[in-house]
Design goal:
This protein is an alpha/beta fold. The protein contains 10 helices and 8 strands. It has a single domain, classed as Rossmann fold (3-Layer(aba) Sandwich), CATH 3.40.50.720. Helix content is 35%, strand content 13%. It has an 8-stranded mixed sheet with strand order 3-2-1-4-5-6-7-8, sandwiched between helices. It starts with 9 loop residues before the first strand and ends in an 8-residue tail after the last helix. Belongs to the short-chain dehydrogenases/reductases (SDR) family.
Length: 319
């Protein structure tokens, strides 16, 4: 496969309005890569970044496409706008994700007071965001790369080993380290890592699919939610968004990371996660993989399970 560099390329990043994905978007722009910010909203720092790179007279360029990643039509629109604005795209990062609690929470079943999931919705919001959207986004990218629409510009050429493309997913150490308080999140990340490994053979078609698996990352996903911050102590180590962004760039550019790679990202260290007999994350202090108050958090889960207001079976519909 030909070498891949992000300079002069175009990337689509979902969830680019904040956190890890915003940091990755900023890094790509500094490397000369156009970025499509696909998110529901942009935090002020993301708005400022898009504004800085908005000019059509300069490269690289940033474009914001308001996108609800749970909507397949919105995901299609995201690709259509990208091709219309830039002619083609070379890198896709379906990075948007949420953590439980306080989102779609297994320990607050659908229909209970704190649940974000409706009783008869027939789906979990967290899985729509964390799992279904990355899978569908990857499918859509492949449809453009393997069978470019005849109506698009000549810039959109079929992917091949001579014209390589990249998909970088965001998994988690929760894919290796079961977390009692977050089973839906863990299931989504186990699935993402498995999905990425299953697509390793796409390398022969010129498309490399891999993922980063960060530890506890200091982003608003944690810092702006007191109910999550109680899991940590001040001395606990964090992984920085910059460390994760650098690992994501390495997944895209480095020849070391072949298709199907899962790259674990800790505080000051990265490593490949083996498909078989992997030792798992190093949970010793300072690595960015452990939270000191996990036992306390688990006690809260047991309290919820004993609460009939949360767990009583829903009343039968007598209408």
């Amino acid at each position: 496969m030909a070498n891949f560099t992000v300079s002069g390329k175009t990337a689509i990043i979902t969830g680019a309005g904040s956190g890890i994905n915003l940091c990755f978007a900023e890094l790509l722009l500094t490397k000369g890569c156009n970025v499509v910010f696909a998110d529901l909203t942009l935090r002020p720092e993301a708005e400022q970044l898009v504004s800085q790179y908005r000019s059509k007279d300069k490269a690289p360029r940033a474009v914001f496409v308001q996108t609800d990643v749970t909507s397949w039509s919105a995901l299609r629109n995201m690709f259509e706008v990208t091709v219309r604005e830039f002619g083609s795209f070379d890198l896709v990062c379906p990075g948007a994700g949420v953590y439980e609690p306080n989102w779609s929470n297994f320990w607050h079943p659908p229909g209970s007071a704190e649940s974000k999931d409706e009783l008869d919705a027939s789906h979990y919001a967290l899985l729509d965001i964390n799992l279904t959207h990355p899978i569908r986004t990857t499918q859509l990218a492949l449809s453009y790369w393997l069978h470019p629409p005849a109506s698009t510009s000549q810039a959109l050429l079929k992917a091949s080993p001579e014209n390589p493309k990249r998909v970088v997913h965001v998994s988690s150490i929760a894919a290796q380290l079961p977390v009692f308080r977050a089973p839906l999140y863990g299931a989504s990340k186990f699935a993402i890592s498995g999905f990425v490994r299953c697509l390793a053979s796409l390398e022969s078609a010129g498309v490399r699919v891999n993922a980063v698996a960060p530890g506890v990352v200091r982003t608003p996903l944690w810092t702006e939610h007191p109910e999550k911050m109680i899991y940590l102590k001040e001395e606990d180590a964090w992984v920085t968004p910059q460390e994760v962004a650098e690992a994501m760039l390495s997944c895209a550019e480095s020849e070391e990371h072949k298709g199907g790679t899962i790259l674990e990202v800790g505080a000051g260290n990265t490593r490949h996660v083996g498909a078989f007999n992997d030792p798992g994350p190093d949970l010793s202090p300072g690595k960015g993989f452990a939270t000191s108050n996990s036992a306390q958090a688990n006690e809260v889960i047991w309290e919820w399970m004993g609460d009939s207001k949360i767990w009583a079976p829903p009343a039968a519909d007598k209408s």
